What does this fold into?
Amino acid sequence: MSLAAQDPSLTRKVGAVSLVVLVLSIVFFVFIYDRIEWGAHTRIKIYFHTTGGLQEGAAFVVAGKTVGKVESIALSPAGAPGPLNGEEGVAVKVAIERAWARRIMKGGDVFITSRGALSGKYLEIGPPPAPGPTLAENDELLGRDPPSLDRVLQRTWDNLTTAAKFASEVRPEAHALGAELDKLRATFAELAPDATLSEDLRALIDEGDRTYAALGGEQGLDQLGDVLDRLQTTVAQARATIASLRASADKLGDSLGALRGSMGAKGAEAFDKIGQAIDRVRAAADRIDPLLAKVQAIQDGIARGEGSLLKLANDPEFPEDAKDLGKVLKRHPWRIIARPPK
It folds into this structure.
Protein backbone atom coordinates (compact mmCIF):
# COMPACT_ATOMS: atom_id res chain seq x y z
CA MET A 1 0.00 0.00 0.00
CA SER A 2 1.12 3.59 -0.70
CA LEU A 3 2.07 6.09 1.95
CA ALA A 4 -0.94 8.30 1.16
CA ALA A 5 -3.32 5.40 1.69
CA GLN A 6 -1.71 4.61 5.04
CA ASP A 7 -1.88 8.29 6.27
CA PRO A 8 -5.27 9.99 5.53
CA SER A 9 -4.13 13.24 7.15
CA LEU A 10 -1.27 13.55 4.67
CA THR A 11 -3.71 13.07 1.82
CA ARG A 12 -5.85 15.90 3.08
CA LYS A 13 -2.82 18.17 3.42
CA VAL A 14 -1.66 17.49 -0.14
CA GLY A 15 -5.16 18.12 -1.49
CA ALA A 16 -5.48 21.37 0.47
CA VAL A 17 -2.11 22.61 -0.79
CA SER A 18 -3.02 21.73 -4.38
CA LEU A 19 -6.32 23.54 -4.06
CA VAL A 20 -4.65 26.64 -2.61
CA VAL A 21 -2.07 26.64 -5.40
CA LEU A 22 -4.83 26.34 -8.00
CA VAL A 23 -6.82 29.21 -6.46
CA LEU A 24 -3.72 31.41 -6.25
CA SER A 25 -2.89 30.64 -9.87
CA ILE A 26 -6.38 31.62 -10.97
CA VAL A 27 -6.25 34.84 -8.95
CA PHE A 28 -2.81 35.66 -10.36
CA PHE A 29 -3.75 35.20 -14.00
CA VAL A 30 -7.16 36.86 -13.67
CA PHE A 31 -6.36 39.86 -11.49
CA ILE A 32 -2.59 40.34 -11.41
CA TYR A 33 -1.00 39.05 -14.62
CA ASP A 34 -2.45 41.79 -16.83
CA ARG A 35 -1.23 44.44 -14.38
CA ILE A 36 2.36 43.32 -14.49
CA GLU A 37 4.39 45.46 -16.88
CA TRP A 38 6.75 43.35 -18.91
CA GLY A 39 9.44 45.55 -20.41
CA ALA A 40 9.63 49.35 -20.77
CA HIS A 41 6.61 51.31 -22.01
CA THR A 42 5.85 54.82 -23.24
CA ARG A 43 2.59 56.32 -22.05
CA ILE A 44 0.60 58.84 -24.05
CA LYS A 45 -2.88 60.35 -23.86
CA ILE A 46 -5.33 60.40 -26.75
CA TYR A 47 -8.36 62.68 -26.51
CA PHE A 48 -11.78 61.99 -28.04
CA HIS A 49 -15.17 63.65 -27.73
CA THR A 50 -16.73 60.21 -27.22
CA THR A 51 -15.32 56.73 -26.58
CA GLY A 52 -17.49 54.98 -29.17
CA GLY A 53 -17.56 51.69 -27.21
CA LEU A 54 -13.83 51.62 -26.43
CA GLN A 55 -12.99 49.91 -23.12
CA GLU A 56 -9.98 49.66 -20.85
CA GLY A 57 -7.62 46.91 -21.89
CA ALA A 58 -8.32 47.40 -25.60
CA ALA A 59 -5.38 46.89 -27.93
CA PHE A 60 -3.34 49.63 -29.56
CA VAL A 61 -2.51 48.49 -33.09
CA VAL A 62 0.04 49.68 -35.64
CA ALA A 63 0.02 48.15 -39.13
CA GLY A 64 -1.98 45.17 -37.88
CA LYS A 65 0.32 44.44 -34.91
CA THR A 66 -0.66 44.98 -31.28
CA VAL A 67 2.04 47.14 -29.68
CA GLY A 68 0.22 48.49 -26.64
CA LYS A 69 -3.03 48.67 -24.74
CA VAL A 70 -5.48 51.11 -23.20
CA GLU A 71 -4.68 51.51 -19.51
CA SER A 72 -7.44 53.89 -18.47
CA ILE A 73 -10.26 56.06 -19.79
CA ALA A 74 -11.06 59.24 -17.87
CA LEU A 75 -13.35 62.20 -18.42
CA SER A 76 -11.89 65.46 -19.70
CA PRO A 77 -14.14 68.23 -18.32
CA ALA A 78 -14.99 71.43 -20.14
CA GLY A 79 -12.26 74.02 -19.83
CA ALA A 80 -9.50 71.48 -19.25
CA PRO A 81 -6.26 72.08 -21.17
CA GLY A 82 -5.47 69.75 -24.01
CA PRO A 83 -6.10 69.06 -27.70
CA LEU A 84 -9.89 69.34 -27.21
CA ASN A 85 -9.52 73.13 -26.76
CA GLY A 86 -11.62 73.19 -23.60
CA GLU A 87 -14.47 71.04 -24.91
CA GLU A 88 -15.86 68.07 -23.01
CA GLY A 89 -14.54 64.63 -23.89
CA VAL A 90 -12.49 61.69 -22.68
CA ALA A 91 -8.77 61.13 -22.20
CA VAL A 92 -7.56 57.65 -23.13
CA LYS A 93 -4.24 56.67 -21.55
CA VAL A 94 -2.28 54.21 -23.69
CA ALA A 95 0.87 52.27 -22.82
CA ILE A 96 2.99 51.46 -25.88
CA GLU A 97 6.06 49.25 -26.01
CA ARG A 98 8.99 51.64 -25.94
CA ALA A 99 10.74 49.95 -28.84
CA TRP A 100 7.65 50.54 -30.97
CA ALA A 101 7.02 54.06 -29.65
CA ARG A 102 10.42 55.09 -30.99
CA ARG A 103 9.31 53.96 -34.46
CA ILE A 104 5.82 55.53 -34.53
CA MET A 105 5.84 59.09 -35.90
CA LYS A 106 3.34 61.72 -34.82
CA GLY A 107 0.79 63.16 -37.22
CA GLY A 108 -1.08 60.00 -38.19
CA ASP A 109 -4.79 59.63 -37.55
CA VAL A 110 -5.65 57.82 -34.32
CA PHE A 111 -9.09 56.23 -34.56
CA ILE A 112 -11.34 53.65 -32.91
CA THR A 113 -12.14 50.63 -35.06
CA SER A 114 -13.03 46.95 -34.88
CA ARG A 115 -12.56 43.80 -36.93
CA GLY A 116 -16.29 43.20 -37.23
CA ALA A 117 -19.71 44.44 -36.23
CA LEU A 118 -19.77 42.27 -33.08
CA SER A 119 -16.07 42.31 -32.17
CA GLY A 120 -14.45 44.53 -29.57
CA LYS A 121 -13.15 48.01 -30.28
CA TYR A 122 -9.46 48.86 -30.36
CA LEU A 123 -7.23 51.83 -31.17
CA GLU A 124 -5.20 52.10 -34.35
CA ILE A 125 -2.84 54.77 -35.62
CA GLY A 126 -2.25 55.42 -39.31
CA PRO A 127 0.82 56.68 -41.14
CA PRO A 128 1.61 60.41 -40.92
CA PRO A 129 1.31 62.63 -44.01
CA ALA A 130 4.99 63.60 -43.69
CA PRO A 131 8.01 62.45 -41.65
CA GLY A 132 8.24 63.92 -38.17
CA PRO A 133 9.16 63.24 -34.55
CA THR A 134 8.25 59.95 -32.90
CA LEU A 135 6.04 59.38 -29.87
CA ALA A 136 7.47 60.37 -26.49
CA GLU A 137 6.41 60.04 -22.87
CA ASN A 138 3.31 62.07 -21.91
CA ASP A 139 2.50 63.11 -25.48
CA GLU A 140 -1.08 64.27 -26.02
CA LEU A 141 -2.82 63.50 -29.33
CA LEU A 142 -6.24 64.32 -30.74
CA GLY A 143 -8.03 61.25 -32.07
CA ARG A 144 -10.66 60.95 -34.76
CA ASP A 145 -14.10 60.67 -33.16
CA PRO A 146 -16.00 57.52 -34.16
CA PRO A 147 -19.25 58.04 -36.08
CA SER A 148 -22.23 58.08 -33.77
CA LEU A 149 -25.58 56.87 -35.09
CA ASP A 150 -27.37 59.09 -32.60
CA ARG A 151 -25.46 62.13 -33.82
CA VAL A 152 -26.11 61.23 -37.46
CA LEU A 153 -29.84 60.84 -36.84
CA GLN A 154 -29.98 64.06 -34.80
CA ARG A 155 -28.19 66.07 -37.48
CA THR A 156 -30.43 64.56 -40.15
CA TRP A 157 -33.51 65.52 -38.16
CA ASP A 158 -32.17 69.05 -37.60
CA ASN A 159 -31.49 69.46 -41.32
CA LEU A 160 -34.97 68.21 -42.24
CA THR A 161 -36.55 70.55 -39.69
CA THR A 162 -34.55 73.50 -41.02
CA ALA A 163 -35.46 72.66 -44.62
CA ALA A 164 -39.16 72.35 -43.75
CA LYS A 165 -39.11 75.68 -41.91
CA PHE A 166 -37.31 77.36 -44.81
CA ALA A 167 -39.83 75.96 -47.32
CA SER A 168 -42.81 77.11 -45.23
CA GLU A 169 -41.37 80.63 -44.93
CA VAL A 170 -40.34 80.96 -48.57
CA ARG A 171 -43.45 79.43 -50.19
CA PRO A 172 -45.76 82.50 -49.77
CA GLU A 173 -43.08 84.88 -51.01
CA ALA A 174 -42.31 82.61 -53.96
CA HIS A 175 -45.99 82.49 -54.92
CA ALA A 176 -46.27 86.26 -54.61
CA LEU A 177 -43.17 86.76 -56.73
CA GLY A 178 -44.50 84.38 -59.38
CA ALA A 179 -47.79 86.28 -59.51
CA GLU A 180 -46.00 89.62 -59.86
CA LEU A 181 -43.77 88.25 -62.60
CA ASP A 182 -46.80 86.95 -64.49
CA LYS A 183 -48.38 90.40 -64.29
CA LEU A 184 -45.17 92.05 -65.43
CA ARG A 185 -44.78 89.57 -68.30
CA ALA A 186 -48.34 90.26 -69.45
CA THR A 187 -47.66 94.01 -69.32
CA PHE A 188 -44.50 93.69 -71.42
CA ALA A 189 -46.29 91.44 -73.91
CA GLU A 190 -48.93 94.13 -74.29
CA LEU A 191 -46.47 97.02 -74.59
CA ALA A 192 -43.77 95.25 -76.70
CA PRO A 193 -45.41 92.42 -78.66
CA ASP A 194 -42.60 92.29 -81.25
CA ALA A 195 -39.91 91.05 -78.82
CA THR A 196 -38.73 87.93 -80.72
CA LEU A 197 -35.04 88.24 -79.92
CA SER A 198 -34.58 84.70 -78.57
CA GLU A 199 -35.99 83.03 -81.70
CA ASP A 200 -33.79 85.15 -83.95
CA LEU A 201 -30.70 84.28 -81.95
CA ARG A 202 -31.53 80.58 -82.05
CA ALA A 203 -31.98 80.68 -85.82
CA LEU A 204 -28.71 82.60 -86.13
CA ILE A 205 -26.82 79.94 -84.14
CA ASP A 206 -28.25 77.14 -86.29
CA GLU A 207 -27.27 78.97 -89.44
CA GLY A 208 -23.78 79.52 -88.06
CA ASP A 209 -23.38 75.79 -87.38
CA ARG A 210 -24.39 74.94 -90.94
CA THR A 211 -22.04 77.58 -92.32
CA TYR A 212 -19.10 76.23 -90.30
CA ALA A 213 -19.48 72.82 -92.00
CA ALA A 214 -19.22 74.36 -95.47
CA LEU A 215 -16.55 76.99 -94.69
CA GLY A 216 -13.62 77.00 -97.14
CA GLY A 217 -15.42 77.18 -100.49
CA GLU A 218 -17.44 79.69 -102.43
CA GLN A 219 -20.68 78.30 -101.01
CA GLY A 220 -19.41 78.69 -97.47
CA LEU A 221 -18.27 82.26 -98.09
CA ASP A 222 -21.63 83.14 -99.61
CA GLN A 223 -23.43 81.64 -96.61
CA LEU A 224 -21.07 83.53 -94.30
CA GLY A 225 -22.08 86.76 -96.00
CA ASP A 226 -25.75 85.87 -95.50
CA VAL A 227 -25.10 85.15 -91.84
CA LEU A 228 -23.34 88.49 -91.43
CA ASP A 229 -26.31 90.25 -92.98
CA ARG A 230 -28.71 88.40 -90.69
CA LEU A 231 -26.46 89.14 -87.72
CA GLN A 232 -26.53 92.83 -88.49
CA THR A 233 -30.32 92.72 -88.77
CA THR A 234 -30.63 90.75 -85.53
CA VAL A 235 -28.36 93.15 -83.63
CA ALA A 236 -30.36 96.10 -84.90
CA GLN A 237 -33.60 94.39 -83.89
CA ALA A 238 -32.12 93.55 -80.49
CA ARG A 239 -31.18 97.17 -79.90
CA ALA A 240 -34.69 98.24 -80.94
CA THR A 241 -36.23 95.63 -78.63
CA ILE A 242 -34.10 96.74 -75.68
CA ALA A 243 -35.02 100.35 -76.36
CA SER A 244 -38.69 99.36 -76.52
CA LEU A 245 -38.38 97.49 -73.23
CA ARG A 246 -36.73 100.50 -71.60
CA ALA A 247 -39.50 102.75 -72.87
CA SER A 248 -42.15 100.29 -71.71
CA ALA A 249 -40.53 100.03 -68.29
CA ASP A 250 -40.39 103.81 -67.98
CA LYS A 251 -44.02 104.09 -69.05
CA LEU A 252 -45.07 101.40 -66.58
CA GLY A 253 -43.06 103.10 -63.84
CA ASP A 254 -44.81 106.43 -64.50
CA SER A 255 -48.19 104.69 -64.37
CA LEU A 256 -47.31 103.06 -61.07
CA GLY A 257 -46.23 106.42 -59.67
CA ALA A 258 -49.57 107.95 -60.60
CA LEU A 259 -51.56 105.08 -59.06
CA ARG A 260 -49.48 104.77 -55.89
CA GLY A 261 -51.07 107.77 -54.21
CA SER A 262 -54.62 106.46 -54.67
CA MET A 263 -53.94 103.01 -53.16
CA GLY A 264 -53.63 101.94 -49.56
CA ALA A 265 -50.67 100.44 -47.76
CA LYS A 266 -51.10 96.97 -49.30
CA GLY A 267 -51.38 98.44 -52.78
CA ALA A 268 -48.27 100.53 -52.23
CA GLU A 269 -46.37 97.42 -51.13
CA ALA A 270 -47.44 95.56 -54.28
CA PHE A 271 -46.38 98.53 -56.42
CA ASP A 272 -43.00 98.52 -54.69
CA LYS A 273 -42.51 94.88 -55.70
CA ILE A 274 -43.46 95.66 -59.30
CA GLY A 275 -41.12 98.63 -59.26
CA GLN A 276 -38.28 96.41 -58.11
CA ALA A 277 -39.04 94.00 -60.95
CA ILE A 278 -38.94 96.91 -63.39
CA ASP A 279 -35.56 97.97 -62.01
CA ARG A 280 -34.26 94.45 -62.58
CA VAL A 281 -35.48 94.60 -66.18
CA ARG A 282 -33.66 97.91 -66.65
CA ALA A 283 -30.48 96.39 -65.17
CA ALA A 284 -30.76 93.40 -67.51
CA ALA A 285 -31.18 95.72 -70.47
CA ASP A 286 -28.08 97.65 -69.40
CA ARG A 287 -26.10 94.39 -69.32
CA ILE A 288 -27.37 93.26 -72.73
CA ASP A 289 -26.37 96.46 -74.51
CA PRO A 290 -22.58 95.97 -74.02
CA LEU A 291 -22.96 92.39 -75.26
CA LEU A 292 -24.62 93.65 -78.40
CA ALA A 293 -21.73 96.06 -78.85
CA LYS A 294 -19.27 93.15 -78.64
CA VAL A 295 -21.32 91.20 -81.19
CA GLN A 296 -21.21 94.23 -83.49
CA ALA A 297 -17.42 94.43 -83.07
CA ILE A 298 -17.03 90.74 -83.90
CA GLN A 299 -19.24 91.20 -86.96
CA ASP A 300 -17.10 94.12 -88.15
CA GLY A 301 -13.92 92.05 -87.67
CA ILE A 302 -15.38 89.19 -89.70
CA ALA A 303 -16.41 91.60 -92.44
CA ARG A 304 -12.85 92.94 -92.60
CA GLY A 305 -11.47 89.39 -92.88
CA GLU A 306 -9.54 89.45 -89.60
CA GLY A 307 -8.23 86.21 -88.13
CA SER A 308 -6.05 83.45 -89.59
CA LEU A 309 -8.92 81.34 -90.95
CA LEU A 310 -10.59 84.24 -92.73
CA LYS A 311 -7.29 85.51 -94.11
CA LEU A 312 -6.61 82.07 -95.58
CA ALA A 313 -10.14 81.84 -96.97
CA ASN A 314 -9.80 85.25 -98.65
CA ASP A 315 -6.25 84.64 -99.92
CA PRO A 316 -6.47 84.05 -103.72
CA GLU A 317 -3.16 82.13 -103.72
CA PHE A 318 -4.12 79.76 -100.90
CA PRO A 319 -5.88 77.11 -103.12
CA GLU A 320 -2.83 76.82 -105.40
CA ASP A 321 -0.47 76.59 -102.41
CA ALA A 322 -2.65 73.86 -100.92
CA LYS A 323 -2.52 71.88 -104.18
CA ASP A 324 1.30 72.15 -104.32
CA LEU A 325 1.56 71.01 -100.71
CA GLY A 326 -0.63 67.99 -101.49
CA LYS A 327 1.62 67.00 -104.40
CA VAL A 328 4.72 67.22 -102.22
CA LEU A 329 3.10 65.06 -99.52
CA LYS A 330 2.18 62.41 -102.10
CA ARG A 331 5.48 62.30 -104.03
CA HIS A 332 8.15 63.36 -101.48
CA PRO A 333 6.65 63.14 -97.97
CA TRP A 334 10.10 63.11 -96.31
CA ARG A 335 10.50 66.77 -97.26
CA ILE A 336 7.73 67.53 -94.78
CA ILE A 337 8.00 64.69 -92.24
CA ALA A 338 11.30 62.74 -92.30
CA ARG A 339 13.42 60.93 -94.87
CA PRO A 340 13.10 57.13 -94.59
CA PRO A 341 16.26 55.25 -93.54
CA LYS A 342 18.34 53.83 -96.38
Notes: Residues 39-147 form one domain. The chain has two domains: 39-147, 162-304. Confidence is low (pLDDT under 50) at residues 211-218. Strands lie at 41-48, 59-62, 65-76, 89-97, 110-114, 121-125, 140-142.
